[in-house]
Every structure is written in C-alpha cells, then in structure tokens.
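Following up on my earlier thread - several people asked me to post the actual chain instead of describing it. Fair enough. Here it is, all 478 residues.
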Amino acid sequence: MKRKIAYPILIILLLATVFQSFMLINYHSTGRLLPRRTIEGPNTVTEVINFEEYLLESYIRPFEITMTTGEGLNVNKVPRDLQGYFDQIWKDTISALATLADKKLYEIYDEDKWNEITGSAGYTIKLGYDCPIRFINWVTGSVNSNSEIDSINKIMVIPIDSDEGDVYIRSGNKVFRYLNVKLSGLLKQNEFLSLYDEIKQQSEITYVYLNEVALYENFKGNIEPDATVIIMDDYVTINRIRVASYEILSECMFNLQIEPDVNNLSPLVKQYISEIKTKLFGIYSDVYKEVIAQNRELTFSDQYNSYSIHTDGSLSYRYASASYIQEKGDISLAFSNALSMLTDMTSLSGTKQNNLVLTKVKEQDDSYAFSFTYFFNDYPVLMQNEKYSVVIKATADRVISMDANLYDITDASVAGSYMDLYDLRTFNMLSEQSISLGSLKADNMYIGYIKDEDTVLLPSWIIDDESVLVIELKEAED
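Reply from S.P.:
Thanks for posting it. Predicted structure:
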C-alpha cells in the first residue's frame, strides 16, 4: 500500500525536477524563463493595443517629418506631440509603403533627382539612418518586390489628387519613384492642405530648405538639399533640461566608491545591490553572484551572462557564448529580444520613464545592432561621445550585448525667464564660428541637447556629419 502512494509522489517530484531544469537551461541559453513567443512585448501594453501599433507609437518612429506646399521657402516640421499628427502620418506612410511593395513598375534615378523634388508640395519623412529593408518589410507587414532597394533613409510623399500620389524612396545614392500610389489618412491631398495650414499657424520656428536660401554652387552635394535651417527667428523659447542618472544606480555606485572595505559592505550598499538584482533577475537573483572590481565597478554574472554597472552609472551586458552564435535569424525577433532587454533595463528607474526612440538599425554579420536615443519636447538628447544612449546587439534567439547610459530628464526652465530665449539664425552662427557652407558635409541639421557632465543641459544647433558638429545656441541679451 505504501508503494502505491510512494510511486505517484516519486513521479510528480521527478516531473517537477525536469520542468525546473528545463526552465533553468532555457533561461541561461535565451535569457527567458519560458520559451519565446513569436512576438513579445510588455503585457500591460499588448492587452490594450496591438503590439505592432504600440511599437510605431513608442519606439519605431522617424527622426523627423517635414511638410511644405512648395510656396516660397517655408518648411514646417510636424511636432511629435501635436494632437497625434506625427504618429498618424507615420502610420499612413507605413500603409503607403505596404501598398507599393508589390508594384512592379517604378522609375530609378540617381541622387540628383532628390535635389529636384526638394520643395515639392508634400511630406518628407526622414528616418535619420539607412534602415535595412528587412526591418521595413517587417514594420509594413509586406515584402518589397524591388530587389534593388536594400535600405531606406528618406521617403517623400507628394499628394497628386484626392487619394493618390507619388512616393519617392531614397536608398543609398539612388532614388526610386512610384506613381499613383494609394494614399490614406493624413496623406490625402485635402487632409495634407488642411494640416499644413494648422501646423504653419502654430509653428514658433520658421524653417527653410537650405538649397533654396543660398545660391552657392560650391556647397552643392555637401549638404542634403532637404536639410532645414532657421533664418527668420531672432529669438525663440526652447526649454533647458535637467538630466540625472537613474537614482538606484547612481546612489549604489556613489556609496560603493566610498566603502572602506568591499569585503564587508555596509547595510546600505547591500540593500542597493539586492534591489538591483531583484529588479533585473526576479526570482533568479540568487543565481547571479556579484563581484566588485578593484575600481569598484559592480558585476553580476552566472555561467552565461554578465551585467556590469560602471563607476559612472552606465550599464553593459555581455553573453559569454556570443562567439558561438552562427545565425542572426529574423530581424523582427531580434528587435523583440532587444526591446525585452530595454524594458528590463529601464525598469530600474523609480520615476516616470522618458521616451527612448529607435534611431538606428544596423545589420551585421552575426547580429543586428539597435540604437536608441532619448527625446524631450521634440528634441533629441545625444551622448557627447557615443551619441546613442543605448545600443543593443541581438539575434533572433537572444541579446548578445548591450551598452546603456540611462537617465531621467525633467524640465529645468524658469517660466518667463529671458534665459530661455535663444538665437536660431543659422547663417549668423556659422559666420561667428568662421564656418563656410562649402566646408560642411551633413545629412541633417537640427536642434538638440548634448549629454555631458553637466546636470542642466542647454539646447544646441547640431550639424550631423561623420563627426557631429555642435554649436551652442546664443542666449538672448538683457
């Protein structure tokens, strides 16, 4: 009788042991407790809206969208926070890309064609980098039949009639033109004209196309013709921002630096370390051992994974067996893994999280590299040296590395203060720096912030070249 009871209990214990071993093996090999679903995302989000729609609104967004009616010099940037227009234009553009994916007929031009169409009435959607077509195919839910397009950097949509228009795609040094593409939403001609009037009236900054302003031949080809500059606004209000490292990371590393004996840590530092481990690894926090290096950097590691918190509060992750990875797999699954890692890292913040936007996708031999940048009040916050705040390399199976500078951003401006007023006249700034247009080679020119050692950051005029040129905006005088 006892054996009849013992055998079932033994079988249950054996099954439980096998299941637990499976979870541990899967966790160490993929970084997850359970096998991966086809597409992953934060549960709190996928229960509310479609996951792909969430990505388009939260992470996968253009660097900039501009519109012009071709009248005069005026170019208006579509604000990211104005009644959802930015996101809707982007979604409508995605729909247009999906529509033209199967089109067999198109025209091919060299890059000079882009110069010709600059200033035509329509939208210019700038991704800000050469985005691999595989990623675009996933975002659009289609497969582009044009084998000559291997990446997309910019898109121009020119409404022709009520619901059709021409779509130009900038891919490397080629321009592809698709005629009579079905347009929807805000891309339609009547919607475009109505929106342009609204944005023009609300815009505080007057932009112009650079090649429309200067009639110099010596700089042609150095600066993209659709780069916008400001020439008419003497002084415009742009907020200062306050940047602080994640409290739990900065406090932990600060106190760790002043510990007299790292082999006998104070209760406060032990509490920080325990809290960080719990947030990162959950119920598996005990699996990771912590090691404090001679320079007081803190590392959590197991057989396969290593997480390091550096003395400046930055984070890095390395997968120990990355050299054995043979295939990078599908780019959509790789991005899903990168997003999962990003979610884990940003969960370390105890305050409201700021927006991290995907600003570069690079296809490498063994993996995909996804770079993210903070945005605040429609302006990017760039790192002084690395430029991107977070860079994650991943495959379809797992994340293999990550380097992150995480921080919280708040408004540091004083309401009504003259200190918030800055001179935006581009030509004045260039001449004061003894910089000629002919010496510039830039894909873009924009206002942004450069993260350095200071707590309060001031806006700067950024010329995006191979080496980013930063010109501090001049404050208004008394």
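The radius of gyration is 26 Å. That should answer part of your original question.
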